[in-house]
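wait is this the right file?? whatever heres the structure
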């Protein structure tokens, strides 16, 4: 990788993640300033020349969603007008992804609108992490890579089982709904025999951010359950699922999600169910920077920086991205086999 021809910029929402990625790639982070007029208008300007350069902009569009989205679009426009050769954007958390279809009459498909805005701004490639809905990739007419955190999640589960010396026969993966089964199967491919089966929480959503658990498909009695989801917003849905698992006799419950939004009363809700023993630990990635006021006891952060750094490197070198997953899978398989042999002893 020619480090003189690649520039990595981190905007307001992902400064810490950008710093980690640059350290892994041994690339100096390029500097950009974002200023606001008194009426809220933004202006984004690079402090370095970008003429003829390969640009990577890292920005999640989490809260404040509209500010972060506009900052990203304005930055792209600034780099395009400054004659950057290629503009790639890395969106670890893609806001508006939940609006991927018309669930009711007279509703927008906002994720398609955001895709159109990104293309019109002048982006050449989009990189995302665990899109809420994979069909959003079809909204883009430019290359888009949606990377899965299945290996990262699987590694966390394996580490937990090994450190806690859990019996693999009593460890089960849980999908919080039918829609999440594909995600859980992706994790199960890596955990292999260190976990024993999959359970599904059947629920219905009468309205956004509200859910009602109908039943649980699978035997969770006396099991250590690992609930795997793509995001935690207000926490209400996943907490109800955890409570339903407890009612069915689950021994311990871990929640692992890619994106930790923790909006509304999520923190107080999490504190309560952790204190009363319903949930043992909550794990999220650093696709979203979590401020101190949104952190709570037992919350654990795991990083996607290695994944994104390797994907950026391979993308720049135009080499296979699949190889990144294959290399990590071999390491995971060795750890699982080693633990299973030791456990049987």
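ok assuming it is, sequence goes like this
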């Amino acid at each position: 990788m020619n480090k003189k021809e690649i520039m990595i910029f981190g905007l307001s929402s992902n400064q810490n993640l950008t710093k980690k990625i640059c350290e892994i790639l041994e690339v100096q982070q390029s500097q950009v300033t974002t200023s606001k007029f008194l009426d809220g208008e933004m202006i984004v300007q690079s402090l370095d020349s970008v003429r003829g350069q390969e640009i990577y902009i890292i920005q999640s569009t989490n809260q404040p969603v509209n500010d972060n989205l506009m900052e990203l679009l304005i930055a792209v426009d600034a780099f395009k007008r400054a004659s950057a050769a290629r503009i790639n954007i890395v969106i670890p958390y893609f806001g508006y992804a939940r609006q991927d279809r018309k669930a009711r009459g007279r509703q927008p498909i906002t994720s398609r609108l955001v895709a159109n805005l990104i293309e019109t701004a002048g982006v050449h490639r989009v990189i995302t992490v665990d899109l809420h809905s994979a069909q959003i990739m079809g909204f883009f007419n430019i290359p888009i890579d949606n990377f899965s955190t299945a290996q990262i999640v699987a590694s966390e589960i394996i580490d937990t089982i090994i450190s806690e010396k859990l019996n693999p026969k009593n460890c089960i993966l849980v999908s919080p709904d039918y829609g999440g089964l594909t995600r859980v199967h992706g994790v199960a491919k890596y955990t292999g025999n260190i976990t024993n089966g999959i359970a599904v929480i059947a629920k219905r959503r009468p309205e956004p951010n509200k859910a009602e658990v109908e039943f649980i498909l699978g035997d969770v009695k006396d099991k250590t359950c690992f609930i795997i989801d793509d995001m935690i917003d207000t926490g209400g849905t996943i907490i109800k699922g955890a409570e339903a698992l407890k009612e069915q006799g689950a021994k311990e419950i871990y929640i692992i999600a890619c994106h930790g939004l923790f909006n509304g009363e999520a923190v107080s809700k999490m504190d309560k169910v952790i204190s009363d023993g319903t949930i043992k630990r909550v794990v999220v990635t650093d696709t979203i920077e979590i401020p101190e006021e949104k952190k709570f006891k037992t919350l654990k952060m795991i990083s996607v920086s290695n994944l994104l750094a390797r994907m950026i490197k391979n993308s720049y070198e135009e080499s296979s991205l699949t190889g990144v997953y294959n290399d990590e899978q071999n390491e995971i398989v060795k750890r699982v086999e080693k633990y299973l042999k030791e456990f049987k002893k």
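The domain at 6-147 is CATH 3.40.50.2020 (Rossmann fold). so i think its the right one actually
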